[in-house]
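Suppose a colleague, Dr. K., hands you the sequence of a protein chain of 300 amino acids and asks what its three-dimensional shape might be. Before reaching for any lab equipment, you can write down a predicted structure in token form. Begin with the sequence itself:
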Amino acid sequence: MTTPQKSSTVRPRVLLQLDSDQHPSVFDAVVAVDSKVDHLLRHGSVSPDQVQEMVHGTIFTRGPKELMNTAIFVGGSDVVQGEALLQAVQQTFFGPMRVSVMMDSNGSNTTAAAAVLAAERHVNLGDSRVALLAGTGPVGRRVAWLLASQGAEIQVGSRSLRRAQEVCESVRLRFPDCVVLPVETGTNDALVQVLDESAVVIAAGSPAIRLLPESVRLQAKQLQVVVDLNAVPPQGIEGVDVMDQGVERDGIACYGAIGVGAYKMKIHKIAIGRLFERNDLVLDAEEIYALGAEILSSNA
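The predicted structure, expressed as tokens, is then:
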């Protein structure tokens, strides 16, 4: 790692937003403004082959000691494209000529970090089995990564066993010693089996899709925590209120999408601020999770 540069001159904070979608995310732009970015440069429909020239614009316009005042945010709705953009950005850097960069396409990293940290407030994930419903989407994949990093035993649920297997394979590549199993969750009988002996359920499905009926949830006697990341009615986990933030229901700590969102927003804003403390940070899933753990610990 290069030695972080300290700025001798106060320069405005400039954030370059690279978005894979045609129209750059308004949500990400508002968070950047609320995070005290002075100038936000937004570009949509960005592909990896276009990144080099844009990155050169960030690293050649200020001296090495001033580069900490420029940063890059990679966004968009497609996490795979976001990963490709992040890789292209990092490949353009050389020597001290680099700026800090954060990847949060589709809010996947900050949301996943907030969800896993919420569960970790109540259980030791290293000793727990976690049922991850709709685990093949952008947020679900990142949740699986973070759970594996904490040593949890994970069941990746999907209506498509093939898609669940693909996610499990990607997790094993990153964490070879993890225990991660693909499971089908298309029926109530399948859900009952998946939830048996699970201490945590995290639902990361699409908006307005019910993944776990209350009648099934109440049969899971080992459950201690449920986290629902769907804010649009009907809720992904029936019986969980969207505002829940550790509310106990039927002896289970419950988190709704807006309850988790409060953690997500705090992590997102502080992460943006951290980009301007040095010029060599790379904030992806695990780094954002570690930052979130630091934030929650300091507020405990």
